[in-house]
């Protein structure tokens, strides 16, 4: 094997393989001077976000009226039962839609009691609708604010919605702090 140069050939092949492995390993490395100069760091972010718009502040007179109405509202609600499926409360005179809406699921058909109260306006208008009946209005009633009003309505399984809006009365439009609550509860089997 020595006569044909076999040992030298084996050493040269081994050395060549070691050099190739080192070269392949170093080919994937990147050195700082290989990339040139680094770009300057910008002081402004790449993506700017718009400034947050502050929430509108409420008129202090409306807040004071609402506070007075809520105190009176608690006495009106004394007659309201606690047993209800769903409901909602809030202002009905100072919102863009000028009203209060609530909706919820009805799981079984039957007679349901709708209880409504409002304070801060002379009157309001209640409507109860249900999508299962083609979105028809099941109940419409004028409500005298300052007293508790109840009505019975037959409902089917599905979603029911109740809406209470203030009647427009010119100078007493928004800014009155009118508050209201709507509750819907199961009464019993339908009629």
Describe the model.
The structure is a single chain. By secondary structure, the chain is of the alpha+beta class. 20% of the residues lie in helices and 35% in strands. The chain has two helices and eight strands. The strands form two sheets. The protein has a four-stranded antiparallel sheet with strand order 1-8-3-6. The chain has a four-stranded antiparallel sheet with strand order 2-7-4-5, with no helix packed on it. A hairpin with a 5-residue loop joins β4 and β5. It is elongated. The N and C termini lie far apart (112 Å). The mean pLDDT is 75.
What is this structure, in a nutshell?
With 191 residues, the protein is α+β, with helices and mostly antiparallel strands.
Structural class by sheet pairing and helices: alpha+beta
Distance between the termini: 112 Å
Number of contiguous helices: 2
Question: Which stretches of 5+ consecutive residues score pLDDT under 50?
Answer: none
**Helix coverage percent of residues?**
10-25%
Oligomerization status of the protein chains: single chain
Strand order in the largest sheet: 1-8-3-6
What is the overall pLDDT average? 75
Computed over alpha carbons, the radius of gyration is 38 Å
**What can be said about the biggest beta sheet?**
4 strands, antiparallel
Sketch the topology as an H/E string, one letter per element.
HHEEEEEEEE
Number of strands: 8
Global shape? elongated
> In percent terms, what proportion of residues is strand?
35-45%
């Amino acid at each position: 094997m020595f006569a044909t140069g076999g040992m030298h050939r084996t050493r040269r092949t081994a050395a060549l393989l070691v050099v190739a492995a080192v070269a392949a390993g170093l080919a994937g490395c990147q050195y700082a001077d290989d990339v040139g100069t680094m770009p300057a760091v910008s002081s402004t972010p790449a993506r700017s976000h718009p400034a947050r718009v502050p929430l509108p502040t409420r008129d202090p007179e409306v807040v004071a009226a609402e506070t007075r109405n809520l105190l009176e509202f608690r006495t009106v609600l004394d007659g309201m039962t606690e047993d209800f499926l769903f409901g909602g409360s809030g202002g009905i005179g100072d919102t863009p839609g000028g009203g209060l809406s609530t909706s919820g699921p009805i799981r079984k058909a039957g007679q349901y009691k709708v209880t409504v109260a409002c304070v801060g306006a002379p009157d309001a208008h209640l409507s109860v609708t249900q999508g299962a009946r083609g979105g028809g209005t099941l109940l419409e009633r004028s409500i005298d604010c300052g007293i508790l009003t109840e009505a019975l309505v037959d409902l089917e399984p599905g979603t029911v919605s109740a809406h209470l809006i203030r009647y427009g009365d010119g100078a007493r439009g928004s800014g009155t702090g009118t508050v209201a609550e709507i509750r819907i509860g199961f009464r019993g089997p339908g009629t």
